[in-house]
Amino acid sequence: MVFLLESNIVSRKPVRIIQLETKTYEKRVEEIVIENQFPANANFKLSMTQQQQTPPSGAESATTGMAGSGSSATASGVLPSSRGGSRRQTVRGPAAASQAANSTTSFGMGSDIAAFGSKKQFGKTRGEDADSAWCICAQQPFYVPDFGTSGSSGDDAEAGGGLSVPSSGLSGASVAIRKSGSAKVKLEFLPLTPGNYRCQLLFLDENIGEFLYEVHAVASLPASLETLELQCEASTAASGAAGAAAARFRFVRELTIPVKNPLLNRALTVFVERANGHLRTKLKDGLKRCEENHHTSFHVDFNSPYFTANVPELTLTNGSGKPLPASGRSDGSGVDASGPKVPLKANQARLGTPRSVLAGTNSVLIDFQPKGAGRYACKLLLRSRNTVCGSSDLRVYDLIAKVKEPNVKTQLEFVAPARHSIVQEIPLSNPTDTTWSLKAIFSNGNADSAGNAQVGRPPASMFSGPPSLVVPAKRSATYPLTFTPSWIYHETRTFVLLNTATQQQFEFELSGYGEEPLAQDHIGLNCQARSSIVHNFDVFALPGGNGSGDANAAQVFKVESDLRDVVGASTLTVPASAGGSNRVVKYPLTFSPLVSGSYFGSVTFTNEATSEYLWYTVEASVSPPDPETTLEMRAPVRGAVGIEIGLANPLDSETTFAVELRGLGLLGPSTFTLEARQSGVYELVYSPLLVTTGNGEEGAILFSSDAVGQFWYRLNLVAEPAAAQELDDMSCAVGDVCTQPLWLQNPSNQELQLQYRVTNTRNFSIKGSSASNNGNTSVKTPTRVLLPPFGRASVVVEYTPSSLSDFESTSIVFYEKDVASDWEFTIRGRGRAPSVMKPLVVTARVNEAASTLFTFKNPFAGPLRVDVKLVADDLDGNGSPPSPRGASPVFDMLLKKRRVLLESFGLLQVPISFLPRAVSETRAQLVVHGGDDYAELEWTYPLRGVAEAPIHPRVLAVLACQARDAVEKRVECELLAAPEDMVPSDETFSVEWEIDAGRFGPMATPAAIERALTVTPLPVASSSRSTASLPYSIRFEPLRPYRGSVALLVKKNSGGLWRFDVVLDAGDPPVDDVLTIESSLNQTSSVSFQLRNQFRQPAAFLAEFSAGSSSAFTVYPAEGELPPYGSDDGAAFVVSFTPTGYGKMQSGQLVICTEEMQWTFNVKGTYPDATPGSRASGPASSLSLSSSASRARLGITQSSSGSGSNSEQRAERAKGRRSRQ
Known about the structure:
Distance between the termini: 167 Å
Oligomer: single chain
Largest sheet: 6 strands, mixed
Low-confidence stretches: 56-129, 155-171, 320-344, 451-457, 769-781, 875-881, 1170-1180, 1183-1187, 1202-1221
CATH class of the largest domain: Mainly Beta
Shape: elongated
């Protein structure tokens, strides 16, 4: 039986598998050792096939981070047999193709990496197939340089999956290997797409056999083109709300991508160099067309959730808008063996701040939203998309973002006495989720001495603190910063708390001032005058040493004291010591006071080498010596008794004794002077106000002299009660009141505020008081009586009689508790029969009724029956007859009840109406008749009715002018409702002003406004008009602004009144002076001047800046009193300027006003000249009025200018200013 066997080899098993790995666009050269597999010499023909493998669905390459999809070749990579013309092929079905298409792996945030390495099927036309043969996708990654071949691709359908026979140009593609020998073959691997690749090397000898080497290669993502760094600082917006916190950590940057890919360009250059002749030209042109047509649109991916692209698509174009290839080749030269000629900067990406919300050309907007401060690393992947040939342009950029919180900068100023420490706790709050580790860094500072500082060695730093601080997450902590000045220095230093993780800095500008040291101790001494006491002071070595830097050397101190009557050594030495510390020496100081009292002073020990010092405060209480003798003084209260004390001066020079009086009521000179070797008598007066108890009170008189010492006398003071004083009798009509002044004399040197009590308050009362001191009298309230020292005061005693026969008496006692004993006065009075009483005046407008209420009081202790009648005069006040019969009376009593019975001290109210018909005065009498037992009594009260003209409908005049100017107007006062028979020329008229000063602002008074108005009557011209009028000239001369209305009252002496409204409008006066003050920022400069009143009396003033003035100006004082005109010194005003920010020139208007005068000053604030090369010598200020005579005329004298100046400059004072009384 014969069988015909035909072999069908569907796969080969490689004798060796070689693993390779490289990055996309990077060439890997591997030298492979080929071993002869047969026991004979052989000449093997080399055939090579290669393909990109398809990984299992969902698989991810550990090296690339993505999965590559398979090509159109068989998944098993079968090479055809070298024998047989017909070979079975295994073709991938639709399911396998679908599986390969879905093999994707995420990159970053969901990028579609499956497109990498999947070669798109070309069109079916021959022209399209021919064009795609020269695209990037057609370039094979494996290449055997020794044989100049890339073999065949597993994707080539025409090859049928077999090995192509080498052309005539490749006839040398064979390898001769001896038996049991080996040969080396170089293999180049240059991938243009990431993924897994397989290459099969078939070695065939037709006579001996064949064997297969297989190469597995992995291409990862291309190397990063650049590393771009972002420096981000969180905003300083408040992080209270979640939205605000997120906005603080959001940053947008614009990344500009070059149009060329340098790595792809270098790789393609290698492929072009492999071709020869016309193939090289065709390949170069094909690759150029592929770049221009296929690689312009890119997709953007990130592998970090904190980075996103606002628009993930990017199109690369040149300046004219035409898409350009993304490779690094230039358009003019193409790709040649020398590589790209474009400078490196042309292929670099740029990362910057976007100028608009839209990305620019070849740019993409990156939205970076970190969760907080820290370092964030990310890879940005650009891949070309929607390419016709299926090839890819891949670019990788490394992004490193460093986010930090904004640096916090604070200024801290420390002030502490030398050799004392203060600690400032600096609070720090950590709002993040990470613990902060802060490092404390102190920079080199600058220190300068203030005062007498040591010379020769720089001071140690006055600031200190722990080297680090840990702030837990979501917690707060404090850093203790200590300031310890060693002496009087000013040190500036920068202190930083650095977060080593985020590089965030908390920066502090430190400024420390060492002030004079505090006293080491307060020493209290107690002794008696004319005795001695010794106290030992502790003196220790100071840190400054002896000035040469040796702290252990001996130190010499100079001793000074401002305490009187002390004796001690002028210097003190603290000996040297090896230890350098705790060196204390006792210094004895003797205190021998001559005079008693309290002494305050200090003792200072100054290091002669360094001028450092330590000091003590001393308070000594010195009691008097034993008294010389005891003297008794006895006197009644408010009386006086004197005593003479003899003194002698034993010295050869004049001596003045200071006299101290201890005891109430003692009076005498405070000093007593004796010439050399002279004797004298000191007169002591005892005038008590308060009665003493028992055997009297103890007092003393002390005589003290620095030269003689102190001696004193004990006094026994006895004050006895005084007898009551009788006043004159008082008498007046019952129903009336009479008064008598009562004078009180103060014999003491203290002010008395006397209260009083009256025993008979029914008939006697105190209605007011007035005090007199040096001729000035002032009215006081009746509740207390004020007596100035050694002055007197009067009170008014009012007597209301209630009896016609018996005397009525009372006792009035004045006193001040614990100050003045009872001061008693007795007084009596008796009543007389009534007659004509005080008149009653009623005022009303013409034809307008007015009423008044007359009150009659029963003056007796018993009931009184009265009858009230109204009796009209025969003629009215104008000489006219009474009202005609039937007409309404001018006066009318509305009480219709007759014979009214009043109880004891009862009241009767009688309403009276007044209805005038013309501007005149009407008179009548109100008669009260007594009844029963008092029938002979009659009280007659005259009534005067004054008629006032109706309100004039028009304003009489408007007086408008500027203050310090004058205006004069002639006015006609129309006498409305005057009597028909009145002839103005036969009448006498007077004028006065009715002024409400509250309408005219602060400090305005009716008297001052009236002094500015002058009314002059003009001759009355004969007129035939029915209404009479009076001409006047009104002159208005204001010295300050007045705006308001006043009333001019025209009074007829025979009775009647006309009221006219006058409007005053006095504007602001001209500016008196211009003050220019120069000051630096946050510094105060001042200018001062003096001001006197314009009249020969002092005047109260108010000073303020007007509305709209800068708040940087202040004036002191704001109120006070101006001296009279002609005084040597005026009131000093200090105007200060403290600018708090730069900008336009500050200005304001200072207004100083009294009741009659106003001064106005324009104030300007300037800054020092900042011109380069100039240096201001200090704050400057000036007054710029036109002349000193103008200032003197206004009472202005420049006192000083500058900041804190005490200059005594005075401007020349002018004389001869008119005084207005």
